[in-house]
Amino acid sequence: MVKMTMLARVTDGLPLAEGLDDARDLKDAEMYKQQVKALFKNLSRGQNEASRMSIETGPYVFHYIIEGRVCYLTMCDRSYPKKLAFQYLEDLRNEFERVNGAQIETAARPYAFIKFDTFIQKTKKLYQDTHTQRNIAKLNDELYEVHQIMTRNVQDVLGVGEKLDQVSQMSSRLTSESRIYADKARDLNRQALIRKWAPVAIVLGVVFLLFWVKTKLW
């Protein structure tokens, strides 16, 4: 059964649309939504190059496809047929590109295409019952194969992003500490120069003052 559907722009992870009625009665719905957002963030960094993938998370599976700079993602029960999940996403992709394709790149705010929820809900209903004649025919469609689509664990996928975040944070911290060290080093060098040349400057100043006084008196 389809539990959740979300669309995001791959280049920056900006959420474009989602099923508004999705996950209403789903336990830990917020946790799964956070996982989806983390996945979109990873995709925006180019960390997962597969254009189609299934990601296991608890009793569910995220399925996604990437087409035309957009990631179409759905979360289904593990028992839900993989072939139907990806055909559901293909239907969403075809309609979204037809209606909103020209505006994807210029979208500036999250959920700019929230009205697409109407089509999401209508299409989701068609795919909920796997035993309808329509869906049985789709399952038997030998032209649409999903066996080669990779399946991974959510911790494996998101763990890569977390490790890179840690490396990035460490790099930023080291850069900041290096700047502080460099500033302190410059201050110490400045103070050393002052201590070295201050007596000379004082002596020269006294000599100049005496010379000036002498010229005035003469």
From TrEMBL:
SMART domains: Longin
InterPro entries, sorted: Longin-like_dom_sf, Longin_dom, Sec22, V_SNARE_CC
Domain Longin: 6-120
Membrane topology: Single-pass type IV membrane protein
Positions of the V-SNARE coiled-coil homology domain: 135-195
Bilayer-spanning residue ranges: 193-213
GO MF annotation terms: SNAP receptor activity
Biological process annotations from GO: endoplasmic reticulum to Golgi vesicle-mediated transport; protein transport; retrograde vesicle-mediated transport, Golgi to endoplasmic reticulum
Locations listed in the record: Endoplasmic reticulum membrane; Golgi apparatus membrane
Entry protein name: 25.3 kDa vesicle transport protein
